[in-house]
Amino acid sequence: MKDKNNFDAIIVGSGAIGLSIAFELIKNNLNIALVSPRSGEGIASLAAGAMIDAFGEIEYLESDIERQRLRMEVKAQRRYPSWLKEIAERSGREVFHRQGIFIVSNNGGEHDVTKMNLMREQMSAFGEDFEEVEPKEIPGLKPNYLFRAQDAMLMKSGMSVDTTQLLPALEEALEKSDRCTRIDDRVTSVDPEGDIWKVKTVNNGTLLTEKAIVCAGAHTFKIIGEELRVKATLPKLYFGRGTSITVINGPDLPYCVRTPNRALACGIHLVPRHGNRIYLGATNLFGTDYNQLPTGPTCGEVHTLFEAIMSELHTGLRNVCIDYISWGLRPISQFNYPMAGATHLPGLFIATGTHRTGVHLSPVIAEFTAAEVLGKTLSEENIFSPQKPYPGETDVDIALGIRSLLATALFPNGRLPYNRMVELETFMTEIFKLAVKGEQDETRDRLRQVLQDVPLSEQGILRAYHEVLEKFVPQDGPYPT
Ligand SMILES: Cc1cc2nc3c(=O)[nH]c(=O)nc-3n(C[C@H](O)[C@H](O)[C@H](O)COP(=O)(O)OP(=O)(O)OC[C@H]3O[C@@H](n4cnc5c(N)ncnc54)[C@H](O)[C@@H]3O)c2cc1C
Is the CB of 91 within 6 Å of ligand 1? Predict the structure, then answer.
């Protein structure tokens, strides 16, 4: 190992984000240390599908911030094929991926058809190729008749990548360079002392650097600590726990097949993987309490996922063998927006908050973060800068929050009789508007306090929901997965 004072920068975390930043920095001849445990348990990047799918992810596009983010996702998606090629060249390892994603709408999602029309509009606006297809001609799609597809298309610019090969390939590329020192250890804290950052580890003592880059996914702020978070005026960080299942020797699946997004997750999807495997994803349970985390996938999550996947995508999977089950914590910032680059504290950089698009955004986040570490001028504004205030739009946030809550509550079947879904959505939207804008009383105060704590109501509303459940539903009662 190099002298512990000899690193130009230290990166904490070796998920898709940490490895991509490290890859970018060694290409720019920086001597770095990458500190992170090598074990894969609970890592979001390994549990991810991972779809690189700017248009399939579109939900509403009602605010400028959503439109900006879409532009960045399109940029990352266009960059991916050459990025994978570069990784293959430097590592000597090909990464399994598939270009093209089928998306289908059905009765499982109240807003599926609207979302698909918005996707068509945006793919046309960005000049991206797509093709309308007959659902019954999609290989790998065989739903229960109650979930017969209404509408389908092949999004040619979307792709999926096997992260169980991407992460090892990035590790290998780093190993082959003499600029990266890989330290298999856990970091307990990152603290400033003058111009220097002290990176404390469990087994390797304290490492020193002028530039600390913390990208430990949902654990990032546990390492930085609350005091520094507040000092750097960074938003809070929460998580969306996700479970996915990989099966082996299933039906033929040349391309990923997915539904539009629901319940804060990336819809449900089947993704082709190396070695004749198929990835089934994914659940998403929003959480704020790091002390009460299950230590693995729960039976409820697995049940929910199988129920949804077999009903909506392929009934025949019941006869197929499970290869393994993965889980991970998606890092979600208070504003549900990624943060990447220099903080207000000189020498402290972070890259996290990527929620369900971290693998997708990795090349762009790495480019922004590395440029700021290197002090280079960026080719365009870093819209993910942690120094940028978030311009919230309350009505949009409330609409998104209520839809996410309903989708969560209705998952996996998504059914309410008559037009109850629309009634419920309208009712809850109005209640939350009242909470934000109405006069004071105890309930409104409580709701306001929750929304103030988690101002993006996509999370705030889900948090209020979980708090009420925790308080009023008995321990052994029904609990959402
Ligand atoms: C089920 C599921 C499906 C998903 N699907 C998609 C998808 O289709 N497309 C997409 O783009 N994204 C998807 N995502 C989201 C994506 O996985 C995340 O946004 C992204 O992987 C976050 O990467 P990360 O490197 O920040 O975090 P992680 O991948 O969680 O990595 C965190 C790293 O930090 C390390 N670490 C943690 N604590 C410490 C410590 N104390 N000291 C040192 N190191 C530490 C860990 O060991 C790990 O290496 C999905 C996520 C899940 C869970």
Answer: no
